[in-house]
């Protein structure tokens, strides 16, 4: 029988020892991940950001995915590789990116293998029983806005992917640390001094990257799905006044389909699920230069009947 504890029951040295050995089973809703890594920064990141997640013990513990980040010596420098069941889908990264590599690799596991959901590249948050999808390209400020909304009382379902049930139209929560890049790290540290941040990875392909711990409410309610009510396409523009306008539903449908990782797997049923989502949701474009202005706009959006 498996016994559940919280990961913070382990000290950092204990966690590092287990990761370097047989690994740990960690509940990362809605999945269980078996994680191994001898690289210290991986233990540091998990200890800092996943302390409130369930750590499962027992020989019969089932894992949806078996993943590892391992170190190698190549061309006179240390690198790390991500593995799932021994398969290495990515080129090596610098050893300092090992924890970020684990996060990116876990995203890949879900988007590449979990086809019972229709998976869309989008942040998702909920308030008052209604969810908002925030699909946006890199550089739009999506993750910073997502982190700010989470700290503002919205429940985080995901920073990276909407797991849409094609039968019910609900989004299944998959709350994990929010990935922040470059200036956004300092912005959120200043706005949320009580929040916990993981290791900083420098000089990645995305620049400087750090992850911010998911809120306690988001993790506690990870079993509660949410029905989307809005699709908002955000765009941060430094110095801009807030500007919001309706986004054509037909265009929103095309953009969601192009941002879906697996709608081709679902065929016509997947497209119909996206069409029903768009039909049910109000769609908006949002341009802003101030997070406070954006949060005020979302407060007004949520207050609407």
Describe this structure as you would to a colleague.
With 305 residues, the protein is an alpha+beta fold. It folds into two domains: 111 residues, no CATH class; 149 residues, Phosphoenolpyruvate Carboxykinase, domain 3. The protein contains ten helices and 19 strands. The longest helix has 16 residues. The mean pLDDT is 95.
Judged by helices, strands and strand pairing, the structural class is alpha+beta
Please give the largest β-sheet: 7 strands, mixed
Spans where pLDDT lies below 50 across 5 or more residues: none
Q: What count of helical segments does DSSP give?
A: 10
In spatial order, strands of the major sheet run 1-4-2-3-5-6-7
Q: What number of domains?
A: 2
Element-by-element helix/strand order:
EHEEHEEEEHEEEHEEEEHEEHEEHHHEH
Write down the overall mean pLDDT.
Answer: 95
Instruction: Write the CATH architecture name of the largest domain.
Output: Alpha-Beta Complex
Radius of gyration: 19 Å
Roughly how many Å apart are the termini?
47 Å
The backbone outline, from C-alpha atoms, is: globular
Q: In what range is the share of β-strand residues?
A: 25-35%
CATH class identity of the largest domain = Alpha Beta
Number-wise, the strands total 19
């Amino acid at each position: 029988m498996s016994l559940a504890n919280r990961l913070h029951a382990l000290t950092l040295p204990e966690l590092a020892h287990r990761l370097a050995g047989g690994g740990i089973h960690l509940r990362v809703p809605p999945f269980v991940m078996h994680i191994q890594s001898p690289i210290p920064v991986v233990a540091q990141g998990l200890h800092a950001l996943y302390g409130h997640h369930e750590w499962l013990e027992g020989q019969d513990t089932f894992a949806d995915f078996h993943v590892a980040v391992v170190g190698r010596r190549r061309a006179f420098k240390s690198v790390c590789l991500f593995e799932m069941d021994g398969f290495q889908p990515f080129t090596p990264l610098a050893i300092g990116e090992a924890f970020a590599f684990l996060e990116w690799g876990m995203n890949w596991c879900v988007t590449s293998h979990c086809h019972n959901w229709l998976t869309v590249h989008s942040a998702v948050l909920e308030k008052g029983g209604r969810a908002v999808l925030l699909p946006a390209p890199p550089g739009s400020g999506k993750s910073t806005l997502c982190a700010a909304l989470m700290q503002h009382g919205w429940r985080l379902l995901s920073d990276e992917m909407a797991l849409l049930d094609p039968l019910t139209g609900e989004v299944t929560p998959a709350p994990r640390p929010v990935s922040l890049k470059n200036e956004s790290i300092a912005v959120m540290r200043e706005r949320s001094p009580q929040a916990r941040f993981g290791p900083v990875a420098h000089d990645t392909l995305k620049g400087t990257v750090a992850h911010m711990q998911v809120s306690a409410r988001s993790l506690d309610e990870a079993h509660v799905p949410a029905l989307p009510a809005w699709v908002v396409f955000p765009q941060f523009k430094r110095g801009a006044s807030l500007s919001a306008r309706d986004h054509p539903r037909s265009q929103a449908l095309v953009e969601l389909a192009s941002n879906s990782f697996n709608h081709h797997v679902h065929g016509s049923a997947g497209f119909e699920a996206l069409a029903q989502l768009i039909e049910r949701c109000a769609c908006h474009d949002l341009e802003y230069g101030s997070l406070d202005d954006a949060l005020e706009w979302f407060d007004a959006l949520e207050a609407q009947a």
